Amino acid sequence: MIHSINRRSVLKSGLVLGAGATLGGLARPALAQSREMTLAVWGSDAEVAAYNAVIARYQAANPGTTIRLDVMPFAQFYQQIDTRLAGRQAPDLFRVTYQHIGRYANSRAAVDLSPYIEAGTAEAFTPAVWSAVTVDGAPYGMPHHTDTFALYYNADMLDQAGISLPNSLDDAWTWQRFIENANLLKERRLGSYPFAMSWQNGSVHRWLVYLYQHGGKLLNDDLSAAAIQDPEGLETIRWTQSWFQEGLVPPSTSLKSSERIQNLFVNGTIPMMLNGNWQIPFVEQQASRFKWGVTYLPRDKAMADDLGGTCVAVSRDAEDPEAAAAFLRFLTDEENMRGFVDDAQFLPVRRALVDQGIDYKLRPKEMGVFVEMTKTVPEHLVRTVTMPTWGRFAPRFADQLDLAFTSGQSPEETAETVAGDIDRVLVA
């Protein structure tokens, strides 16, 4: 149940939800006392700058409030957050993917935000992301943005190989055509390797894109048991394993590595990369020696893409959770969300912004491809990766796929081990 904030709590805390906003007819006064809070995030330079811009606006509207941005490497982010939570020294607020919010909710490491948000807040956000942050009917994070994947390409190298690009989502390359083009780039020695996929640091949920494209599922329809051992699962493991066996991707780009494939793309090592929309500012800045663009992911029996993006949670160690929640409401209001997604090249999750569309300042054509790709995210995939138990079997899932890719473990052994791990977690 979502409770509205009452008059007494507003006046007691002196919180603002946004410049000039009102709650129940009451003007939101400036903060009456000094507060210091920490927001822990990871992110590219563009993301960090976008966070700092929102923080600056909030501090200007709330004299006496200081919010320190704690930027950590993504590879160590959750380990550091968990360590600080164990020591009861966690930051006041922390960024978290939709795939991980469930475990922080279950352990109550994240605060139930129901007392701090207005009635009807859920209706302001797209259903998928609000469902992702909600556990047992209560929200444990505020959705901030979403993102998804597409195919970046070096136009100069593809032109040299005589490779033509799709003109529409329906015309996207098939898996077979994608591999044919990759082999053509390899034969012509255009780049050291034809492509790479951004699933490093154990971002195993991104592999599911291909499983769903091939007609498979990680779990059965009601999410009660593993389904990866079905033929579609075995075939998808075998297909992605072949990328490494046939030298189509750099050996350093498997799931357990920390390779930044965007660096490989901008320096010409790979002419194609499967990556997210948030990389556009980096590529725009660094890839000045060649023309580049973005097209659709390859497709098989169907098209499918990843549920990406993050929410922000208030930690149980927040000294003043009400003040932290006030900043969180400000961060995710319509005006600030619009500015953040434009600056950091993300996609909005407020219904009004989704309906209106964002007039992106940077690479609007390429961002249009990503917007189209968001329409292909399977509902079953969303339900799978936002399960509270996802974080319990995902690391082992990543371990097994990594063994298949780097050590030649068979698809059958990989699927059997993953299925066993999943089933043990689901019945626990």
What does this structure look like?
- This protein is α/β, with parallel strands linked by helices and 428 residues long.
- It is built from 18 helices and 13 strands.
- It has helices at 7-13, 45-61, 74-86, 101-106, 127-133, 155-161, 175-187, 208-213, 231-245, 261-266, 280-286, 321-331, 334-344, 351-356, 364-374, 379-385, 390-407, 411-427, and strands at 22-23, 26-27, 35-41, 65-71, 93-97, 134-135, 138-139, 142-145, 149-154, 195-197, 272-276, 292-295, 310-314.
- The strands form four sheets. A five-stranded mixed beta sheet has the order 4-3-5-13-8, with helices on both faces. The protein has a four-stranded mixed beta sheet with strand order 10-11-9-12. A two-stranded antiparallel sheet has the order 1-2.
- β6 and β7 form a beta hairpin.
- α2 runs antiparallel to α13 (334-344), α9 packs across α17 (390-407) and α17 runs antiparallel to α18.
- The longest helix is centred in the C-terminal third of the chain and has 18 residues, at 390-407.
- Pfam families: SBP_bac_1.
- InterPro entries: SBP (IPR006059), TAT_signal (IPR006311).
- Belongs to the bacterial solute-binding protein 1 family.
Brief sketch in words of this structure:
Helices cover 43% and strands 13% of the residues. The chain is built from 18 helices and 13 strands.
Give the distance, in angstroms, between the N- and C-terminal Cα atoms: 28 Å
Could you say which overall geometry the principal axes of the C-alpha atoms support?
globular
Number of strands: 13
Using the CA coordinates, give the radius of gyration: 22 Å
How much helical structure, as a percent, in the residues? 40-55%
Give the spatial strand order of the biggest sheet.
4-3-5-13-8
Structural class by SSE content: alpha/beta
The chain-level mean pLDDT equals 91
Instruction: Provide the low-confidence segments as ranges.
Output: 1-32
Share of residues in strands: 5-15%
Largest sheet: 5 strands, mixed
